[in-house]
Structures
1.
Amino acid sequence: MASSNRGGLTERQFQALHQSAVDAKANAYCPYSSFRVGAAFLTSSSIITGANIENASYPVGTCAERVALAKAITDGHRGGFRALAVATDITPPASPCGMCRQL
């Protein structure tokens, strides 16, 4: 598929980002809902992943997208974010929550 259909990413970048998000689901901590989510940010230099982390107090959990962004920032990335991929185990895929859409 042409890169114009992939948000300006090459097919290789798109596939790597997608697979990174899928792989990140394995690190999800979701003992209450069993709803695994993986996220991957493509920066100008690398792919940073994250997974959702649940807490017994529901609002205290952290979405995969926010985990990946926090990881990127604490690893020193300050811009150059090009794309985000999110992966779940459901079909059709879930879209990011309202809070994560504000990232």
2.
Amino acid sequence: MDHTNAYIHGSSSSNFSSIRACFLVVVFIIFIYRYLQRRSRYQAENLFGEQHGCHPMKSRFPIKWPLGLDVLHKQWLANADKRLLAYQQPFLDQLGPNLEIKIMGSVGYTTYDPPNVEAVLSSRFDDYYLGTRRGAMFPFIGEGIFTQDGGAWKLSRELLRRPFLKTHYQDLQGFREPIKDCLAKISARDSVPVKSSEDEEQDSFARSFDHASWITTLRSRLTDLYWIYNPSHYRVACKTIKKFADGFVSRALSAKDEGKTEATSDRYAFIKDLYAAMKDTSLVRDQLINILLAGRDTTACLLSWTFFLLVRHPHVLGCLQDEITSVIGKDANITRAHIQKMGYLRCILNETLRLYPPIPLNVRFAKNTTWLPRGGGPDGDSPVLVRKGTGIGLVPYYMHRRKDVYGEDAMEFRPERWEGPELDDIGWAYMPFHGGPRLCLGSKLIPRRRSIVEDTN
């Protein structure tokens, strides 16, 4: 019996050793295979770079700690303090419009050089995609135009484009009451309250939306590690947002056109059009949240910065008041035709968008091995190889403040720079709404230079 047990034990140990050895061999083979695969791709990418005359990026973001943890730490603190753009400004002023940054072992690029921006957003559009942004934003805005690429994105854009075209030709009656309410509160108080509604549901939604937007921004900066930061209060905020949006979808679909006024029918037209095409309430809800994200804070930023700049430049405000009086006169009903005649107003909005673009930075990832037109070599004028998976940060905020483009007074608020031929050939050096195929759908709702729209279409 003892001999039998010893034999069985020895046999089991031998089998276990054999299994472990086989497992190690399989792991080793997989490792070697992936290593050779990556090496082959790396060599193919190098050959691609040589064929396109690529050189290493001239400028590199300075790092002191291993893996660039010092940069990541300082960026995180600056972002939490809402000073990220100000923190990076001195480095970019010194290093130039194109630079390489290496954090956590991954190489990425930052650019505010117009030819490179055009390449990423337009001429080589198909070489780039959203990358990790989809995963970082998905709990917040779901399946919508800002988390989609390829065919799904094209379908969403076409569905949303039609309602935007309708909005472009509507009158301004829908803005009248909210504006009157806002002006009344300005007159009654020293400052405009952030919370404009007493309804608890709307108030909860507003707080949740602000919080989810902020957390999503932080998640996006973690790139591949976005999934690490998923706090419970973020999940609760996302749930509150979706519940609130679901309510609008339900009311729109349950409302009967018969017996309803035209105004009531128009109120839900956007939702009904989406549902007619999608036949899925969850997808309609997600698209609504996507559009709200695009229009809520961006519009608020433009208005806030415009008022901020006007009160600090009384002569500009005076000129605007004179123009409004001359165009509108005693007519109490302001129309889009009136606004289109206000050239100085367009200059003010252009200048505000230049200094404070609604989307000051954005990121794209290389879907394929590709290249940037500029930034490489000793003079920084040679192409740069962009390997598959590399992230590229586009920064309109800095590009709009380049003195070699806008002059020595680039940091100053001067709407008159848009009146003459000074900026007729500005092209991709001005892109408050981004450009190319993903040009903002709402860009034409704001009075602006027609040439800019044509250049980015």
